[in-house]
Write a structure and sequence with these properties.
With 220 residues, the chain is an alpha/beta fold. It has helices at residues 16-31, 44-54, 74-86, 122-125, 134-137, 139-152, 161-170, 197-201, and strands at residues 2-6, 36-41, 62-66, 91-94, 113-117, 155-158, 181-183.
Length: 220
């Protein structure tokens, strides 16, 4: 099977979805030698960095594919379906909501199957908590896209049962397709571990919360 993974969700600025995508690639390279992976980029420097950091450069069943357009461009919607067909991709995995809609018919299975992540529906359900988001400024378009993704994706992955319940409640997914919305909790990298016995013997330090995310209301 040939699986296409859209790594254009990895940006030069660290983000949660970018980290999710990088770790997905890193771990697939460790555990899967059976399938062939085509990994899509549109930034040469970023591609080289990710191939090196994740070990994909040394994984024979992974191949990078450079695209001359980004995720949010009209060209992506128009040209990406042809790329998937020409490259013989069987399954396309989008680590976030935006997929090339024309590649995946709404009323029947397409030649390429689609797996996408919907991490949460916060901008859709609580737009007042995302005041700086492009999804807020283009809310009607965002809502339409989310409904199209729900109708076209073969499998929808999400990270919690609460998010799954939101997806089933707010997007048009018929009862016979509810089983295709699957909860897979996000993993934890090995570098995150409980304190060692030695650490627990050190004098107690003041408790500090270090926040490195965006300062949006919904991040509170």
């Amino acid at each position: 099977m040939k699986i296409g993974i859209d790594a254009r969700w990895i940006f030069r600025e660290i983000s949660g979805i970018g980290t999710y995508t990088s770790e997905l690639l890193r771990n697939l390279a460790l555990i899967d030698r059976q399938h062939h992976y085509l990994v899509f980029f549109n930034d040469e420097r970023l591609k080289n960095r990710i191939l090196d950091e994740t070990g994909l450069a040394h994984a024979a069943n992974f191949q990078a594919y450079m695209l001359p357009y980004g995720l949010f461009t009209p060209l992506n919607q128009w040209l990406m379906p042809r790329v998937l067909l020409e490259q013989g991709v069987d399954v396309y995995h989008a680590p976030n909501y935006l997929i090339p809609l024309r590649a995946f018919p709404a009323q029947r299975p397409g030649r390429v199957r689609c797996v996408t992540n919907l991490h949460d529906l916060i901008p859709l359900i609580y737009p007042q908590y995302t005041p700086r988001s492009r999804k807020r400024r283009w809310f009607m378009l965002y809502r339409w896209i989310m409904r199209q993704v729900a109708a076209r994706a073969d499998i929808i992955l999400t990270g919690s049962q609460a998010a799954r319940a939101d997806i089933l409640r707010h997007l048009p997914i018929p009862p016979e397709r509810e089983a295709n919305v699957i909860t897979i909790p996000d993993g934890v990298a090995p570098r995150f571990q409980p304190p060692s016995a030695q650490d627990s013997r050190t004098p107690a330090a003041p408790k500090v919360i270090l926040w490195v995310g965006r300062s949006d209301p919904y991040k509170n």
